[in-house]
Amino acid sequence: MRRSGSAEEQIVVMLKEQEAGKPTYDVCRTLGVSAATFYKCKTRFGGREVSDARRLKALDVENGKLRNLLAVAMPPSRDSAAQCPAGQ
């Protein structure tokens, strides 16, 4: 399956199609994924709604931004200063 910004949403839609009665083979063929990939996705994303996938993606983005802000705001620790060679 090709990567895109809405991969989680596509996976949730794929799982809903299969749950609605569409054969797994047809769902996999339509999206170009193997049966093994389908069942891995089912294990990971089963029971989620599209809105849940969007919310999870937004939380991941926000978490990354907060981690970057924290890394910039935190002064270097004494441990990291002790590991730097003298004169640098």
TrEMBL record:
GO molecular function: DNA binding; transposase activity
Cross-referenced InterPro entries: Transposase_8, Transposase_8_domain
GO term, biological process aspect, one: DNA transposition
Stated name of the protein: Transposase
Organism: Roseisalinus antarcticus
Lineage of the organism: Bacteria, Pseudomonadati, Pseudomonadota, Alphaproteobacteria, Rhodobacterales
